[in-house]
Fold:
Amino acid sequence: MDHKPVEEFLDIPKNIILNEAKTVDVIRDGKPVEVNVPKEFIGKLIKTKSADFISVGFPFEIEAIPSGTPASKAGLKVNDRIIGLNDTLLPLFDQFRHTLQNYKDKQVLIMLIRAKDTLRIPVRVSHQGFIGVHPADLINFLPLKIRAILC
Structure:
């Protein structure tokens, strides 16, 4: 931010708010881009009392499927990678979860990759807006740094 590197992802929101960052450097489509932070942005964040304006996007890979859930009844399997809903590509977990809320108590076609095959499987969405799977943890998709802390 403001042309200075940030070591910890979770430090980004507080640095934008507390240090009133003017710019954020990002990689977009493989190219570096400087994004200007609008002056009114920080004030709006403070009013909403939310630092959830930035998150990590990660693929939607199924880690577990409890029995009796719509996903288990439809035949989804552990390690399936969900990539879309009906005819819309939604490769990231948050995109899929958000869009699924529009289909409560309806049947949808889940697009997924299983091994090397791309499948479309009909699944009934619960009245709460879930299909009943546990996504793989974010840690499976990000490289980790180990940092020693001496006390």
User: Anything to note?
Assistant: The longest helix spans residues 39-48. The domain at 60-139 is CATH 2.30.42.10 (Pdz3 Domain).
